[in-house]
Amino acid sequence: MVASYLTSELKEKFDKDGVVVIRKVFSADWLEKTKIAIEQNMASPSQYGEKVKGEGGSGSYFNDYLNWQRIPELLEYVYKSPAAEIAKFLTGSQRIVFYHEHVLVKEPNTTKTTPWHHDQSYYPLDGDQVCSIWMPVDHVSKSETLYFVKGSHKKGYFMPYKFATELPYPLSDPSKEERAVTFTPIPENIEEIGEVVGWEVAPGDCVVFAGKTVHGAPGNLSARPRRVLSTRWVGDDVVCAERPWVCSPPVTGNLKPGETFQQDDLFPYVDC
User: Fold this and answer.
1) Closest residue by Cα to residue 232 from 94, 122, 95, 87
2) Which of 41, 33, 247 is nearest to 135 (CA)?
3) Is 134 in a helix, a strand, or coil?
4) How deeply is 189 buried, as exposed, middle or buried, from its count of CB atoms within 10 A (0-12, 13-18, 19+)?
5) Left if phi > 0, otherwise alpha if psi is -120 to 50, otherwise beta: which for 51?
6) Average pLDDT per run of 10 along the chain, which is 272 residues long?
7) Which of 95, 118, 180, 232 could anchor a disulfide with 244, C-beta 3.0 to 4.6 Å?
8) Could you tell me the end-to-end alpha-carbon distance of the chain, in angstroms, rounded to an integer?
């Protein structure tokens, strides 16, 4: 039996809008373990970690991924937290695969914004059963929260943008330019795509969004950090895909384009 908060109405809203907020899901114990994991990650980032600053402001925006196998609290979160069940239910998949985690920290007085984008253009993945679970460990007001474009997950692929420069990803090979034109630039007026929504979020809440839902965030001008663990999950219809740029994360294991995910140490099935 699934958790009581995983209702048919929630699933219908996720399918329609590409994003839902779920309240009071993660216990104080999970929040404390996640804080420890984030602290460890920031103290010892991977080769993919980066810390960027906007114009003015004293704070930085830290992000890093693919650390879940070396940080015990992240490993436990993957297999034992409510995240896998949420992802499986909302994607409608028979099995759920853990793809990777992403630690996202905006320090106090950080002017650096998160550009409008959707995740799946960065990933070497095609399919509809892709989702992220964005779980803050701090209170996030509407002035610092993540914003989404409702229904944008049904509007094809958009161009990926570098977080540091907010410029489009460069092609990895000029011969791939023809493929790149199938990715639409994000318009300057984001409401041309659809209605923008966002929520004030408390510790224990989470926001779940589809891999092709467009989203972005302002800086953090508050006096507290905005620390988030975002986990990425894929379902049965997802296959490995080629992109005309270097993917983020640039990891496919032994998968070839068109192949579905199989149980392995890099992309494990999670029973729930």
Assistant:
1) 87
2) 33
3) strand
4) exposed
5) beta
6) 94 98 98 98 97 87 98 98 98 97 97 96 97 98 97 97 91 82 94 98 98 97 96 97 94 91 89 94
7) 180
8) 10
